[in-house]
Design a protein that fits this description.
Elements (H helix, E strand, L loop, with lengths): L1 H25 L2 E3 L5 E3 L7 E8 L11 E6 L5 E5 L2 E5 L5 E5 L1 E2 L5 E2 L2 E6 L5 E6 L4 E5 L5 E5 L12 E4 L5 E4 L14 E6 L5 E7 L10 E3 L5 E3 L7 E6 L2 E8 L21 H6 L4 E8 L3 E7 L5 E7 L5 E6 L9 E5 L4 E5 L16 H9 L13 E7 L3
Parallel strand pairs: 1-21, 2-25, 8-9
Antiparallel strand pairs: 3-28, 4-5, 5-6, 6-7, 10-11, 11-12, 12-13, 14-15, 15-16, 16-17, 18-19, 19-20, 20-21, 22-23, 23-24, 24-25, 26-27, 27-28
């Protein structure tokens, strides 16, 4: 009988070792947001430090909506605004605009995404024609335009990241016939510096929502958020495409093709966001120590998670959809800090403070006395946050 238990223990040990070996072999770090996080209502014990960056306001630097933020090695802050690209220094002083709306050399009608090249000396932007426009990070001047040579006609690309040898990646969400799931559609394509196609990656598994596909990671690497129908985050670093993080909501994650897309029916975004599943992991950012993302939860509430990358434990907080105040969103990071956009111009008192306000934003207003006065500044604040995950 004793030998039977010994054999059973040995088998369990081998299975466990096999599982660990498989995880180490794949190199994918698994986060379990609903199991390995603690819900936070008060951030007093979970914030290490906070720094405020006021963005200078001028006729050339007015910000209507921050679509994306990039952090350069020099500390420069590159912002894709709804009207174009702006560059600020690390203190928030406005340096220069990048390009402008128009049809001339270096001009654009609409930009979908931006990144820095691997050298950190150029800003690359993809426009509504899938052209990649290169600008100098030193002074914003136009350098050149590259037209990617797709193997076949390709829809609009809303994501860009640098590749090796001055090349780039472009991400397109869905084919022209969005309901076509029989023919393989590759979302990610790699090009060399003159636009020649090198390779295609990431075959589409479901209808992909065209929202914040690629974000900047540490050391100017880039993260591709999980596509709909998948829960894997890919990293793009020096020309490599690598499965890096698994965001495992298990049976609480929305099943593939839960919202069917047909020739008769468009994608029902309201039904997608309001169902009882977790969905759309987005705004993926990381520091050296931890990893942050948000996700849509049951009933269209926003959920936020930050994990320690060593012990895989983390924090979890919720934005109630009934909170009508502007949402605090983290849109960039460096090796130590996350960069959140604070754009709430309301004046709060303890007697008139929304009870259902998102906890992190509430902490910043109440404990750090962060406010925006619309008469003094029309630009949002950038809040640098370092978490203390216990």
């Amino acid at each position: 009988m004793k030998s039977k238990y010994v054999i059973l223990a040995l088998l369990m040990s081998l299975l466990s070792c096999s599982k660990i070996s498989k995880q180490l072999k794949t190199g994918v770090i698994e986060f379990c947001p609903l199991e390995n996080t603690q819900m936070v209502l008060d951030f007093t014990n979970y914030i290490d430090s906070v720094e405020i960056i006021p963005l200078e306001v001028s006729d050339m630097s007015y910000i209507a909506y921050i679509q994306k933020i990039l952090i350069a090695e020099s500390g420069k802050i590159v912002i894709l605004n709804s009207t174009g690209i702006m560059v600020f220094d690390s203190k928030g002083n406005f340096l220069f605009p990048v390009g402008r709306i128009g049809r001339g050399p270096g001009e654009y009608l609409q930009l979908y995404d931006i990144c820095l090249d691997l050298s950190g000396r150029e800003i690359m932007a993809v426009d509504c024609n899938n052209d990649v426009i290169h600008y100098s990070l030193l002074d914003g001047r136009f350098l050149r335009k590259t037209t990617p040579q797709f193997p076949e006609k390709y829809p609009n690309c809303i994501g860009i990241a640098p590749s090796n040898d001055e090349g780039f990646f472009l991400f397109g969400c869905n084919p022209f016939k969005k309901e076509d799931f029989k023919n393989t559609f590759y979302c990610l394509n790699q090009f060399d510096k003159i636009g020649r196609h090198i390779k295609s990656y990431l075959p589409r598994k479901d209808y992909v929502l065209p929202i914040d596909i690629i974000t900047q990671g540490i050391n100017n690497s880039y993260l591709v958020r999980p596509q709909e129908g998948d829960n894997i985050c890919y990293s793009l670093d020096s020309g490599n495409v690598k499965a890096t993080y698994q965001l495992n909501f298990k049976d609480k994650y929305i099943p593939p093709h839960y919202i069917p897309v047909t020739t008769e029916h468009k994608f029902d975004i309201k039904r997608f966001m309001n169902n009882s599943y977790y969905k759309l992991p987005i705004y993926l950012h990381e520091t050296e120590k931890d990893f942050y993302f948000s996700a849509g939860g049951p009933g269209a509430n926003d959920h936020f998670f930050v994990f320690d990358k060593k012990n895989l434990k983390g924090l979890h907080w919720v934005h109630d959809k009934n909170d009508k105040t502007p949402l605090l969103l983290i849109k960039a990071s460096d090796s130590q800090f996350y960069y959140a956009v604070f754009n709430d111009y309301n004046e709060y008192t303890m007697k008139a403070f929304p009870e259902n306000m998102e906890p992190l934003k509430k902490f910043l207003i109440q404990n750090k006395k962060i406010i925006l006065n619309s008469q003094e500044s029309m630009n949002p604040l950038i809040i640098k946050i370092k978490f203390n995950i216990q």
